[in-house]
Amino acid sequence: MIESKQKINKILLIFPAVIFSGESPKQIMPPLGISYLAAYLRPDYEVKLLDAAVEGYNQESRISTRFFQYGLDNDHIRKRIIDFAPDVVGVSCLFSSQFLSAASVCAIAKNVSPEIVTVMGGTHPTFLSEQCLADRNIDFIVRGEGERTFKELLDCLRCGQSFKDVGGIAFRQDNLVRINPAPMIAEDIDRIPVPARDLLPLEKYFQINMPMGLISRQTPAMNMITSRGCSFDCSFCSSCHFWGRRYRPRLVENVLDEMEQLKDMGIKELKFFDDNLTLDRERAKKLFRGMIARKFNFSWNTPNGIAAQTLDEEMVLLMKESGCYEITLAVESGDEQILRDVLKKPINLKHTLHIAEIIKNCGIDTYGFFIIGFPQETKKQIYNTLHFMDKIRLDRISLFIANPLPGTEIYRICREKGYLSGDFEQKPLDYFQSVFQTPEFDSKFLESTRRRWYWRYNSKLLLRNPFKFFRKYSIFIFKRPLFLLRIIINKLIVPSLNYARNQTEKK
Fold first, then answer.
1. Of 151, 134, 162, 138, which Cα lies nearest the Cα of 186?
2. pLDDT of the residue at 244
3. Is the pLDDT of residue 502 over 60?
């Protein structure tokens, strides 16, 4: 364990190469996590950012029959570490599927010099700190919201003070893992500087132009958040435990000032990554009125999803006037009992149908998230979701298979019921394949059902409104035909062949 005073001045924050399923498109946007950390640290430390995903976007390798990786390879990452000679390497690990990639960065750093302090943060290490620290190349875990915790850890190392009582970190002590209680979250998030986007190769994101959700009306586009925290306790989501159960909005003027900066940078479209952009209705309306008053003329959408219960007609009209062209409704399930008792998500399906109609009537496109295959779900309830999906008739949908993310209630239930293999946490994870089966359904049922309904639904858009279909997907049809072909092959043809092969083998 690191004990003595360290030379701590140069910090390299790395977003690692991305592990992804062949069914997933290669979406890429500036990583907000390490950008916020850099902004918070750089008054006191020399900080550099390395987004290995964007810098090696076209470098692809297969890591299994189902999963690929894109991003800088180990030799390039090693060279970047050697060139900067950091005292600390911080690695982002947002999702469980990225742990192997993030851990390899820590191994590279330690291979360059055992004196480099390695720190990992993100949702996966936050909830599985003990498992992550079994890797001796990882010195520390920063758990949950990272700015204040990470800086306090660095300050302790620099000054030779004990870090053992720093809240929110995990580390090894006498060959045991010590997990400190999480610190108080930042009460005033307006005191956290806006992301250090100037430390990233922004032109590369703009040239690739594959934002989260894939759709954009204008380029360049930029992601941003206006709030942190979630007051809900949805059983399938770890966000409320990572950021805290209390909703913490930024001041509207603070958000508008950041937008002003983005406008000056030439940004034309915004992607709101908030978990709860419209939770505080009056604040949201004030924000949209401010965007209108300042005449930003951004186009914008909500790829992370909006809670339908927070919307009303006045809100939607303001969203439209301020530049919103698409609203993503995070519906999840079309079964009231699953929503209420299993997901614990406060959604009224009748109100959701009503809001969807208001959105359409205002001329805003609709996108929806739906999930099937929860551990307590029956086949009848799965079909209730699929039929509701047909009933609401959104412009496009994503249909996912439920998988137990560490830090969620669903994960705990699956562990208790013995649904997960012993090495589950070490495997890449996506939302197109089931990793468990219950007495009610197996993975083959879920995968074939999801694929059939997904393609049937999305193909209907072409028949219902060909003009809208070609407007929405023209970038892929005319400018990126090879990308579109790859998606069709990986999402439709390959899974269908695998399913047919499995059925033949069963016979």
1. 151
2. 77
3. no
For the full predicted model, state whether its pTM sits above 0.85: yes
Task: Give me the half-sphere count of Cα atoms (radius 13 Å) on the Cβ side of residue 327.
Answer: 31
pLDDT tens digit string along 198-243? 999 999 999 999 898 888 899 999 999 999 988 787 888 877 778 7
Cα dist from 403 to 20, 235, 236, 411, 412, whole Å: 15, 11, 8, 8, 12
Contact call for residues 339 and 345 (beta carbons, < 8 A): yes
The residues that bridge with 68 in the sheet, in sequence order, are 20, 62
The CATH classification number of 10-179 equals 3.40.50.2300
Q: What is the CATH number of domain 214-464?
A: 3.80.30.20
Q: List the one residue out of 264, 272, 326, 366 whose CA is nearest residue 29.
A: 272
pLDDT at 484 over 80: no
Detail the DSSP E strand segments found in 16-103: 18-21, 46-51, 60-62, 67-70, 88-92
pLDDT, tens only, 361-375: 999 999 999 999 998
The whole-angstrom separation of Cα 493 and Cα 470 is 22
Cα-Cα-Cα-Cα dihedral sign, residues 42, 16, 166, 407: positive
Domains of the chain, residue spans = 10-179, 214-464
